[in-house]
Design brief:
Elements (H helix, E strand, L loop, with lengths): L12 H10 L5 H23 L8 E5 L5 E3 H17 L2 E6 L6 E2 L8 E9 L10 E8 L18 H10 L8 E7 L3 E6 L5 E6 L4 E6 L10 E3 L10 H10 L10 E2 L5 H11 L2 E4 L12 H14 L3 E3 L19 E4 L1 H11 L1
Helix pairs in contact: 1-2, 2-3, 5-8
Bound molecules: 2,5-anhydro-1,6-di-O-phosphono-D-mannitol and magnesium ion (MG).
Length: 347
């Protein structure tokens, strides 16, 4: 059957997933997991939109395992995401940026997918109604993983240890990854390894509708997104790179700076317009800020599926096997030529 889209066709995420299943691209269990993730995202979208009305702005009062203040919406979104995945009955292990350790769930089905997620990334923007997003990645269970998951005291119980081992896989093992951006539109971006598909929530019907398929990131793009407030803490090589972007060059026009401080928003713009997003290591944060499992690996899988590149400045993000679940890595992601350029400066 032809997959060509005609002008009158409306493809929802649900029908798209079922077609992928029919074509053998994903299995039935993956369809269910992805459908449950999209439900979680719709719920979070509604919570984010109504936050100031339902008194969900502000901090929760707790600090997460990584020493960050949790916002009320961080906590609620984490619950929504976990509950949707649990109810799917098709996830074996879930790991969240907001939880200390990965948790085992249902074991009754053959799928038992491993899902990693950041339920509400960029939540420091939330009280000002600026873009935020949810990020996720899906792996197969991997008990042969060679990572030594034992802690120093050897006190990890076997279930917990098995969960950590399952989660500590390199991004190159990802079967699916995506994000949902809560912005002027609610945008769900997904790859199951056959290109990048963009769905837009139609608030009239509560359905995600396919709005872009096989997205390709421009090979180059003159927009850079770095938190330059950290400039003084950066390595000299990186300073030289960013300085070079400000030189007008032959075209007479330097690069434009754009930085939301919300990875999903900054990444989505980079995907569509081209350019580069970077979160470097610096004197204070030796490995940068972003998490390999929940942020860098899923985004790198998506960018590669769109013909772009994700790097830690020296190597491909997807080749890095995590040794800790909350591990951080520097991230340079976007158009191939722009990421190549920063790698040259850092070499
Ligand atoms: P979070 O997971 O605690 O929300 O932090 C991740 C966010 C990213 O969305 C964003 O790109 C980055 O932190 C911004 O950090 P900074 O404020 O240091 O520029
Ligand atoms: Mg985050």
């Amino acid at each position: 059957a032809s997959s060509k889209k005609r002008s009158y066709d409306i493809v929802t995420l649900t029908t798209w997933l079922l077609k992928q299943e029919q074509a053998g691209v994903i299995d039935n269990e993956m369809t269910i997991v992805l459908a449950s993730i999209s439900t979680a995202c719709k719920q979070i979208a509604s919570l984010v939109q109504r936050a100031p009305i339902s008194n969900l702005t502000g901090v929760q009062g707790a600090v997460n395992v990584q020493g960050e203040d949790q916002k009320k919406l961080d906590v609620v979104s984490n619950e929504v995401f976990s509950n949707c995945l649990r109810s799917s009955g098709r996830t074996g292990v879930i790991a969240s940026e907001e939880e200390d350790v990965p948790v085992a769930v249902e074991e009754n089905y053959s799928g038992n997918y491993v899902v990693v997620f950041d339920p509400l990334d960029g939540s420091s923007n939330i009280d000002a109604a600026v873009s935020t997003g949810s990020i996720f990645g899906i792996y197969s269970p991997n008990d042969e993983c060679l990572v030594d998951a034992d802690d120093d005291n050897g006190t990890l119980d076997s279930v917990e240890q098995r969960c950590i081992v399952n989660v500590c896989q390199p991004g190159s093992n990802l079967l699916a990854a995506g994000y949902c951006m809560y912005s002027s539109s609610v945008i769900f971006v997904l790859t199951v390894g056959t290109g990048v598909y963009v769905f837009t929530l139609d608030p009239m019907y509560g359905e995600f509708v396919l709005t872009q398929e096989k997205v390709q990131i421009p090979k180059a793009g003159k927009i850079y997104a770095f938190n330059e407030g950290n400039y003084a803490l950066w390595d000299d090589k990186l300073k030289k790179y960013v300085d070079s972007l400000k030189e007008p060059g032959d075209s007479g026009k330097p690069y434009s700076a754009r930085y939301i401080g919300s990875l999903v928003g900054d990444f989505h713009r980079t995907l569509l317009y081209g350019g580069i997003y970077g979160y470097p290591r610096d004197k204070k944060s030796k490995n940068g800020k972003l998490r390999l499992l929940y942020e860098c690996a899923p985004m790198s899988f998506i960018v590669e599926q769109a013909g772009g590149k994700g790097s830690d400045g020296h190597q491909r993000i997807l080749d890095i096997t995590p040794t800790e679940i909350h591990q951080r890595v520097p991230l340079y992601i976007g158009s191939v030529e722009e990421v190549d350029k920063v790698e040259k400066f850092l070499a």
